[in-house]
Amino acid sequence: MTAFAPERAADLAEIQQKIYRYGWCIDHRTFDELDGLFTEDAIVHYDLPGGAKKPWSEMKAWLPQGLQLFRVTQHNMSNPLVVFEGDTARATTYGNLVHVQHHKDDTTSVMRHHTIYRDRWVKRGGEWRIAARTLSNLFMDGPVFGPDRVHLYPEPKPF
Predict the structure, then answer these.
(1) Could you tell me if residue 1 is inside a domain?
(2) Does residue 53 form part of some domain?
(3) Average pLDDT over residues 22-46
(4) Residue range 94-116: average pLDDT?
(5) 84 occurs within a structural domain
(6) In which order are the strands placed within the sheet that holds 38-47?
(7) CB 145 within 8 Å of CB 101
(8) In terms of residue numbers, what domain contains 128?
(9) Is 1 exposed, middle or buried (0-12, 13-18, 19+ CB in 10 A)?
(10) Could you tell me which of 31, 56, 79, 102 has the fewest CB atoms within 10 Å of its CB?
């Protein structure tokens, strides 16, 4: 890994802010805002139990279905390491993800998911966008229940 070059400060800030924006959009389920983070031809791979690998346009349609199982989520994105190579970059970011389910018997359960996001970024039209993303599972703590056992939430509903 090469040392950070000060002339890349604006690029680094843009990529880091977009990494954080991703978590915010997922948690607030503002999926249309995610279009500004991904290239049209991006491939997204959630490499975990129940995950999927799809082009961004298909993944965007898949996300609401998967996330409705959770009353709320919180995607804490941290320690983004970014390495630049011209108009491309690679970023590796920890994800500490919390998913809360509200059961039909009025109980709740929490699943904590610890992940690593590996992204390939490209600069197009003066903007950085994700061209490929893989979410790799480190470990999960707590169960995830299917739609037969939990209430579904198209929008997050904080307690």
Answers:
(1) no
(2) yes
(3) 97
(4) 97
(5) yes
(6) 53-55, 38-47, 127-141, 108-124, 88-102, 72-85
(7) yes
(8) 6-141
(9) exposed
(10) 79
